[in-house]
Amino acid sequence: MEKVLATDNDKIKEVIKNSKQYELQIIYTQIVRDKGKITFKDYTYNLDASNYYYPASTIKFPIAILALEKLNTIENTSVNNIYTIEGNSEKLKFADEITKVFAVSDNVASSNLFEFTGFDYINQKMKEKGLEPFRISHRLSGSEPSNPLVKSVTLYKDNGSIEVFPSKLNEKSAPLKLNNLIKGTGFIKDDQLVNEPFDFSKKNYFPLKTLHNTLKRIVFPEAFNESERFKITDKEREFILFSMQNLPRNAGYNPKEYYDSYCKFFMFGDTKNQIPDHIKIYNKIGQAYGTMTETAYIIDTENKVEFMLSATILVNKDGIFNDGVYEYDSVSIPFFAALGRELYAKSKM
Predict the structure, then answer these.
(1) Across the chain, which distance is largest between two alpha carbons, in Å?
(2) How far apart are CA 7 and CA 16, in angstroms?
(3) C-alpha closest to that of 205 among 42, 67, 52, 14
(4) pTM higher than the cut 0.85
């Protein structure tokens, strides 16, 4: 980690020189294979769960997995089941919504899955698996994202029967008490500038170590105790992993608009070229309010390289939140791409 961050690469040097300003945190993991047993060697930079960052779409990762975990507790169901949500006649398929979540990080798809699980279920299941600290307090779409009332869901089962899950009032989240919850100098609300720092205390909380450990459990469940694993079938886990590495062009999206690196920033974020077939990236990204986060398991079958990498960075030079003016293209994406390539090169050695 020290060698990589001490590189002469300008994209990395600029961020490391101002790492406090960028609220940078990194975890790199070596995968150690010994006689069929998997262990991990973690290397970290500025890792601190008490320093808050906004997790954005990375919260969709446990939403997708736990929707399948809940589905797996219901007889005569599969990932291909159809369901509808109260107030919406659209017929949704679990497989399709999960595909959208990973291929293009679709907000509506994640909210559709969320109505099936709800706040309490996700928070409790993450706690049971030792994936803490963590809390989900709001959806990523809709007019009332923090409404603790989840809508009723009608599930159409494989045997032709129908089961209705009633609406449920979930526990309301208390404000967070962490460092760096109050950020910037202003924010946009109703198209007007409010000259006050932006308060993140009621937002979702998914610190980097918890995110990284979620990835470990889905890629290498055998490295964890039974109680720490997600309760999904092998086929369901394979579907999650396939969806994580699947590229937009293979999921039916226009490759000119949704190029290979659209949701894969490590190694390839600064190019629109196709990712080589021998490199697979099982990942989830998040990008909002100037914060960019990614967790990824990267494997090169041709060169026998594999590692895990998670990082988060904040780019908001003007200090104004919700104005859409962030340095994603000039700072964070080039940094993530360069960081991924440097660690790939070191892993290859």
Answers:
(1) 62
(2) 10
(3) 52
(4) yes
